[in-house]
Design goal:
Elements: H1 6-13, E1 19-24, H2 30-37, E2 41-48, H3 51-64, E3 69-72, E4 86-92, H4 94-103, E5 113-118, H5 122-131, E6 134-144, E7 147-156, H6 165-170, H7 180-201, H8 204-221
Parallel strand pairs: 1-2, 1-4, 2-3, 4-5
Antiparallel strand pairs: 5-7, 6-7
Helix pairs in contact: 4-5, 7-8
Length: 223
Amino acid sequence: MKLPGKRLMTCASFVREGAKFVDIGSDHGYLPVYLKLKNKVETAIAADIGEAPLSSARKNAAKYGADIECILSDGFDNINPESISDAVIAGMGGELISKIINKAEFLRNKEIRLILQPMTGESELREYLYSNGFEIEAEKTCLDEGKIYSVICCHYSGEKITADDLKLAMGEIAPHSEDSEKYAEKVTKRLKNKLIGAEHSGNMEEAENLKTLISQIEEIYLR
């Protein structure tokens, strides 16, 4: 089969061997199909809120002979908690990912690994995770078709922390790791736009905080 793009392959790299795998918002089902064909997972579920994407996932599973289950579900609503050890939530905004996690109480389980790939709102997602007892184990960046993404691997620990601005902006991305500089450039560009807005509105305290954060990111990740 055609391999999933680098964004989804980065998500796949965090899935544990022999996992009971669920892909939330699976769309065409490429990730569960790929993982099952590679015999990396014990079971694989493609879950989506729409019937059309699930139909596409079923067709792909049949085409490649992959034994996956397709479930119509709003987030984890129709997913049996016993069928999950590892779950991917990818390709949607950080705020929506936070809502999906928050709605599923059974994810507050130290044995479940969550692999999250936000398209927007990465800082807001990290803040939700840190303040709600989820520990970010690792984070990778990847460049896919000219766009830079972050993939977060986390689990529930029960320990709530208040993260500083640098941790919210860059998470657990290691300095000078693959594509980390491109991700830092993306983040600082966004922060510089916010800085212009803060200066124009006369919010000098916010402006100074943004300047400090931009300097920290440039010092750690871009030098």
